[in-house]
Amino acid sequence: MLNWNQLLAWRAETDPDSLALVDDLGASLTYGELAARVDGLAGAWSERGVVAGDVVGILAHNSADWMAHLFALTDLGAVPAAINHRVAPQELAGLIHLAGPRGVLVDEPGAALIAAAGVDLPVTVTTAEAAQPSFARPRTDPTHVQVSPHDPAVLLHTSGTTGNLPKFVPVSHQRLMSSAMYLKLTVPEARPGSRHLRAMPLFHLAGLANVTYPLFIGGTAYVHSSFRPAAFLDALVEHRIEFTNLVPTAIAMLIDEVRSRPTSPDLSALVEIGYGASPISPSLLREAIEILGCRFRQNYGCTETGGFPVSTLDPADHTPDSPRLHTAGKPALGWHVRIVDPQLRDVPPGTPGEILVRGSLPFDGYWNNPEATAEALTPDGYWRIGDIGVLDEDGYLSLVDRAKDMVISGGENVYPAEIERVLSEHPAIAEIAVIGIPDDRWGETLHAVVVTRPGQVLDEAELLAWSRERLAGFKCPRSVEVVPELPRNATGKVLKRVLRERHWQGQERAVS
Predict the structure, then answer these.
(1) C-alpha–C-alpha distance, residues 59 and 82, integer Å
(2) pLDDT per residue over 44-54, tens digit each?
(3) Would 487 be classed as within a structural domain?
């Protein structure tokens, strides 16, 4: 199996003039120019003392250069760590401590976040500095480090799970390569020269895997720094985009943008939209199929599965009258999916249980965290994906709930325990439980159920403002409810299922 640097070098030799990466900041790189840029950036990082084995953070919005820096670092044998630029300063400080990077690449907002977090790193490179012609120069010693396909192409971090700190997941060259190979097998129209538009953040596996995919096949990846519906729709039309991927929230925004135009935009080149990473309703899918006029494909997976979907709902199941729209499809190539009870015994079809998965590429484990790795794996090598699901008689997987109460809002994974730990410090709060409630635009939003301290009155607006000072925006509750007490079971555990029931009653909680 090749590594990504070998693949890009081959593309540069065989098809140097084909367009590889275009972004909305003005960059445009052919495969030949991308290879030269990667080599120059590798030289620049090497001059700053980065060597094989060093971790280097990337804390910046999407760009063509984001990808070039990633490949430059792996060409040195260094380990890029993609960090969510939407976290709060305190969260960033924890992630930096966890990864232990020698240096970091930042854009202007990332530099401000680093400063607010009080983080001091030996090497900090700004994207503005890296864009200067004098920054990137080919290495005086052109010897390339031998990079194994099993070496990390990137570290991606999870959010803090219930009761635990975030963890970094190494995603190897082989895993990213395999995910691209799978997508190529399932989408025959994707070919050299095909046009792909991407706006999902590159610090997310879905965002990164869907940019490496067109590079694998020799296509062109049009990369947007963030998702803005009007600019995204304009790009779909202007560049005659054939393939894109979105979270359901963005699909809803795109539909609204299409409807707002005085004349219907020409989307006739659009072949397929892939989606995932967030709850989606069958009604939204039906609307998208009607308004956007292309086919749809759902891929279900997580950071730990390395870009290779665990299951896929194929376009054939995306007809408006399909009974499968609420499902996550069938297990993908190379994956075996089991549904088990608390004793890890298989349950009959149609019975909810914990989802276990095992693939042809075993889970590599968490970065420098053997204890968490051991907890996540069963003795026979199945990965405990953390979701509750059902397999029906025909082999379709439906997701019922998240075993650890994770909420997915607008494509962002949010863990209520983390929110609860922060909000419980508010002087008026005695107890708090945070749940996800349905939202037409975001899939789910965070709802805080609060018991106040005796004699205290809680102002909802003040609490929401208080939370925004301490948490990333996507982790802040959108609504607050004050109750006399929280429902509990016999052992004192808060019954979040009871809190959610009245909000989800009569609605399908389908998760992609």
Answers:
(1) 7
(2) 999 999 999 99
(3) yes
